[in-house]
Amino acid sequence: MSSVRVDFSNCMSEFAGGHGIDSAELESLYPKLSAAHEAVHQKKAQGSLGFMELPYKTEEAKKISGYAKKQKAKFDDFVVIGIGGSALGNIALQTALNHPYWNLLSKKQRKNCPRLFVPDNVDPELLKSLLDVLNMKKTVFNVISKSGTTSECLANFFILKNALIKKVGIKKWQEHIIISTDEKKGYLRELADKENIVSFTIPANVGGRFSVLSPVGLISASFCGIRPEKLLEGARYMDRKCGSDIVKNPAAIYAAIQYLMYWKGKKINVMMPYSQALKDVSDWFRQLWAESLGKKTNLKNDVVNLGPTPVKALGVTDQHSQVQLYIEGPYDKVVTFLSVEKYGTTVTVPATKARHYLEKHTLNELIKSEEEATRTALTKQSRPNCTIIFPEISEYTIGQVFYMLELATAYMGELFEINAFDQPGVELGKVLTYGLMGRDGFEKEKKEIKEFLISKKNSKYIV
Amino acid sequence: MSSVRVDFSNCMSEFAGGHGIDSAELESLYPKLSAAHEAVHQKKAQGSLGFMELPYKTEEAKKISGYAKKQKAKFDDFVVIGIGGSALGNIALQTALNHPYWNLLSKKQRKNCPRLFVPDNVDPELLKSLLDVLNMKKTVFNVISKSGTTSECLANFFILKNALIKKVGIKKWQEHIIISTDEKKGYLRELADKENIVSFTIPANVGGRFSVLSPVGLISASFCGIRPEKLLEGARYMDRKCGSDIVKNPAAIYAAIQYLMYWKGKKINVMMPYSQALKDVSDWFRQLWAESLGKKTNLKNDVVNLGPTPVKALGVTDQHSQVQLYIEGPYDKVVTFLSVEKYGTTVTVPATKARHYLEKHTLNELIKSEEEATRTALTKQSRPNCTIIFPEISEYTIGQVFYMLELATAYMGELFEINAFDQPGVELGKVLTYGLMGRDGFEKEKKEIKEFLISKKNSKYIV
Q: What is the residue-averaged pLDDT of chain A?
């Protein structure tokens, strides 16, 4: 079977020179890395790391794909109403595994699957425009919020539900909704119960950014012809590969080199796929890495203000945008290439009268050569980089990579001695928003932000 | 008229505390900033900064829009074949100024304009898929490369031209091509002359990343109903605003605060629009900033390895992904918000039985409140940020912002004492690619990279 591998040669000083890691340095981290592995498995045993249980929920995956198979012909359009962890995985799966112009294909070309829309913002222009292109009578909405209370999700839901009711009536709208939320609590759970709406459960011990292999990611994927069983199979394979022999554990090794690089001042982790299909995997990873590892305090409550900054890039496109900086700028980056050994198709540059050096080569050769050249150029200039190798892009390999990166994130939390599973920093912004929106109970915050804004009212610092 | 402003209050220590800039510090930079302004205008006078001349090329803008008006009804699809600076501006213009689901609208809804495709990569899957959705008989290709020799552009062009000839024949394909390239030299110029293909000139003194207001960006925009005259009008307005009184010059002030922030260790510049429409302006900016300012040596040829890292984010979406890190992580960032005072539409959250606090509010209020809350939360935690304020999104304001950021980049080059207009760092990758692709004359590079790859062949650092 196709096994995803991590090549970290170019992070080692043998290849990357002065900015690389010595083998002795890596080896001296092994005890801590083993302890991290143990700690993660202990947390799993205690039931607090639900993402590690997801690969084994094969019955649920079957249920979801069976449900989607029955329903999908009824609908022309599938809309995910969610944000952050309730949208990024859905987008990443679709971009990775389906036609890049999916929504422009005929329904027949899409093998009877619906178009997919993920309007993951509360932008009035975006939402209004979405209404221009949906045929409500043939649209299904998957409302996703673990808490069942996320403002952005509910705002969009209330608007779209209203538009839906206008088209299909007060007795039928429920048939156009699928709810994914907590098993017991929250507004969406109550609504599902009251209105008898189809619903799926997001396990309480699975955080949003670790939820792509739960119903959060699997429902929209299944409607679009992606096989959830194969995703989980890939994740299980990776789970087995990531055993207690940490030198053979790709998630542990990935975490180790990223951790060491961070303390060498490489605080920016650029994820750069050489494949258009993988571009949104970087975007999904951006949330996972930033929200899990960007923390003010460690477990001892010391102020640490740490966390690597994930950056998404795209090969070859960003060779014409970012690589100049990566090659010549500050030594503050480590690049994670995503590399595809076998693309899904081969395209040949035809012979031309120009007798150009490209002719009769394939685009496949060109993109691979550019990848290899960029990797080599970086390495030769002591710019550390590693490569996650996909034998091909499939549900099986994508499932492996999602799981590997989630597990690596958990290990990173242990290495940094922080809680990788909370996000306390977004609280202030939330309550200030409630204040501005006049929500009951947030009068203090309203006053606080209004005062702050008034203090700036006549700022001389506007030009 | 609608004037774009820069609010940098939250970069000042009065508001941002210890990580902010003191007014005295800013003022002490003014002499250097004035000198930078002078130096830029001197270079302009010498004819080396073509981007500063573009706003005044009104005749050409009229010619382009007139041409597009006549031609566009003939075509259902417009394809930009370009990469980097020959694609990012086109994408940014389209996303900012047209319907977010443009390619899904009917031709009537698009007011007779074509769909737009910008496949700015050499990915075999992407290119093959593009062929699935184009109707060649109704497609026009705008091939854009200043040098006329860019590998990625030519590879895609040769493939698409071949497919085009198969559909429309060897005598008609030329009518489906528009070439944008150098006035005199390069393969594309020769081809235009030989085959009598419509062509536009990219001025020799305009670099790719500064070319959005040249034919590079204006042709696809005009075909899609965007008014180039208005873009240039905005740019001219900004040019006048950016005068020698640098305290009133928004490009100079933006450069000054970014420069000071860089030396305070804020080496990451996050551009975060609170508007889906502006998301690709950040991507365009990413190239401008990274490629112009990421440099190994300064003008005295000292090794400096400097350059801020531009990062694109999106509000409110990235509040659920990146803001945790921005609030709690290392003090290594300055955020540039792009803020829209008046959105193009208003969407109201309807009343629901839930009696939710959101009901009867508008999405406009929600997105603005979240923006204000995030900005305030960052500032209160001494995370410096500034805001570029768009009164509304229009050709006029977008033209202003493009020009302002280009000019700010030129000032940054002067402040850093580097050449902001070259990109020597990408050369090694290019020649190694030629080597791998077997291009004549690159046998040495072929040997070099092959040897390097062999040295890693049995790397033990793969897991």
A: 97
Q: Number of A to B CB contacts under 8 A, please give it.
A: 443
Catalytic annotation on A430?
A: yes
* Strand A385-392, strand A5-7: pairing: antiparallel
Q: Determine contact: B441 vs chain A, CB below 8 A.
A: no
**How far out from the chain centre does Cα B81 lie?**
16
Nearest CA in chain B to A363: B124
CA distance A243 to A234: 15
Min Cα–Cα distance to chain A from B225, Å:
17
ipTM of the complex: 0.98
Q: For each of the domains in chain A, give its residue range(s) and CATH number, in order of start.
A: 5-44+235-416 (3.40.50.10490), 51-230 (3.40.50.10490), 430-455 (no CATH)
Closest Cα to residue B358, out of A352, A127, A434? A434
Number of Cα atoms under 13 Å in the Cβ half of residue B314: 19
Query: Is B430 considered catalytic here?
Result: yes
Residue whose C-alpha is closest to residue A141's, from A113, A178, A110: A178
DSSP string, A245-285: -GGG-HHHHHHHHHHHHHHTT--EEEEEESSGGGHHHHHHH
Whole-prediction pTM: 0.98
Size of chain A, expressed as the number of residues it contains: 463
B79 phi, psi to nearest 5 deg: -120, 125
A211 near B320, Cβ under 8 Å? no
Looking at residue A223, what is its pLDDT?
Answer: 98
Q: Is B272 exposed, middle or buried (CB count within 10 Å of its CB: 0-12, 13-18, 19+)? A: buried
The residue ranges of chain B whose pLDDT is under 50 are none
Cα B132 from Cα A99, distance rounded (Å): 10
